[in-house]
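Structure first, sequence second, as always.
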């Protein structure tokens, strides 16, 4: 599994789960202008890519953490990823909603979780880390011991690094923004003169205007 980060970056570009458009920026829900858009749910439509990511998650969890009792996916993007990983590891799984359900039992955590269980959280994408860490907080409040989090991809924002550090959560990602840009350049998906623009955006995404 050497160079797994570069291989996964290549797979994300190949299936267009990640699209780079330095000259035609996207607008995120936050209002930020961005030369990159990532939707890792697209990987689920490609069985070979989906299976490779699942096995990479399994290996990462086994290498980075003690054996968990439970896998938790973060709704909605990582519910399917969490289920795939839980199945590969023969572990039970729950998922965490962004807010409590407004009817019935008003669950925030769906599935069976017992106090004291050791949990690894699965995410598809890390931007600022806000929603991911909200899920961790919900699990901790329910009595779980959160061993850490694994994700497919992170933009590597300093804000996210600080947020995870403050929350005391170990985060491991299968690939990163830095590796993605290198892979895109090597494959011809972007040109050398676009790399600086992409690096400048990552340093200050809220103020970047292309």
């Amino acid at each position: 599994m050497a160079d797994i980060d570069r291989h996964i970056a290549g797979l994300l570009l190949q299936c267009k789960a990640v699209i780079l458009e330095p000259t035609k920026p996207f607008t995120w829900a936050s209002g930020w202008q961005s030369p990159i858009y990532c939707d890792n749910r697209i990987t689920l439509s490609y069985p070979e890519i989906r299976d490779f990511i699942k096995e990479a998650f399994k290996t990462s969890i086994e290498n980075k953490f003690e054996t968990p009792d439970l896998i938790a996916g973060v709704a909605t993007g990582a519910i399917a990823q969490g289920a795939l990983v839980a199945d590969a590891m023969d572990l039970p799984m729950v998922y965490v909603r962004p807010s409590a359900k407004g009817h019935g039992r008003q669950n925030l955590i769906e599935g069976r979780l017992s106090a004291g269980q050791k949990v690894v959280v699965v995410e598809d994408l890390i931007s600022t880390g806000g929603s991911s860490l909200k899920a961790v907080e919900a699990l901790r409040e329910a009595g779980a011991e959160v061993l850490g989090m694994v994700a497919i991809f992170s933009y590597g924002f300093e804000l996210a690094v600080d947020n995870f550090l403050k929350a005391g959560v170990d985060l491991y990602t299968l690939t990163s923004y830095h590796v993605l840009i290198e892979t895109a350049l090597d494959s011809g998906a972007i040109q050398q003169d676009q790399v600086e623009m992409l690096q400048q955006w990552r340093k200050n995404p809220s103020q970047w205007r292309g």
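Margin note: The chain has a mean pLDDT of 94.
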